[in-house]
Amino acid sequence: MANTVFRLVSGIFAFFFGILLLGMLIPQNLSMPVDGAGGMNYNSQSFWAYPWGKSVTHKGVDIFAREGTKVCSATHGIVLSCGPLGRGGNVVFILGPKWRIHYYAHLKGISVRPFSLVAKGDQIGTVGTTGNAAGKPAHLHYSIVTAIPYPWRIDNSVQGWKKMCYLNPIDYLEGAQQN
Q1: Which residues contact residue 99 at a Cβ distance below 8 angstroms, ignoring those fewer than 6 apart?
Q2: Contact at 8 Å (CB) between 141 and 65?
Q3: How far is CA 144 from CA 101, 134, 172, in A?
């Protein structure tokens, strides 16, 4: 009986470890999520800017564009959730390669559904001013969150412990190809 339980637990562990490893091996090649945007459309110093309203530090990048501009998935993945969400307004969460969650906020419109598959470059919505972006210039707030924390990224900055989960999207956008 104990041997059977051990084999079952070992098999379950091996299955989940295999899934985890497979997700880490899928290549990630991001593209600019805002149609026609480039380095002039965002501030390259805005990631982890402090102070930044109720969120304390800015954990992403704001990419400015005309309201209604097409927003595309920066990577292939699965839509985990989408819809209105507090300060983010209309948001989309996409699970992409390497167990990274791509967060798109302040969208005017959303054109995907939960649990749908998206390819890099597929339209997921349009640039807007929803949530706490109301009354501000239209932009997309884009963040990348790793589901597997990187504790070596922790530092002494304000909320620096959270850096183990937030990756700087600007590092991936600089040199990213257009959709």
Answers
A1: 20, 23, 24, 146, 147, 148
A2: no
A3: 6, 23, 10
User: Do residues 113 and 82 lie in contact, with contact meaning Cβ atoms separated by under 8 Å?
Assistant: yes
Q: Are 76 and 110 in contact (CB under 8 A)?
A: no
| Domains of the chain, first to last | 27-173 (2.70.70.10)
Q: Is 92 in contact with 112 (CB distance < 8 Å)?
A: yes
> Exposure string (b/e) for 16-49, b if CB count within 10 Å is 16 or more?
eeeeeeebeeeebebbbbbbebeeebbeeebbbe
**pLDDT per residue as tens digits for the range 2-13:** 677 677 767 776
Q: What is the pLDDT of residues 115-144, one digit of tens each?
A: 999 999 999 999 999 998 888 999 999 999
pTM for this structure? 0.88
- Cβ neighbours of residue 71 under 8 Å, at least 6 residues apart? 33, 34, 35, 104, 107, 123, 124, 125, 126, 127, 140
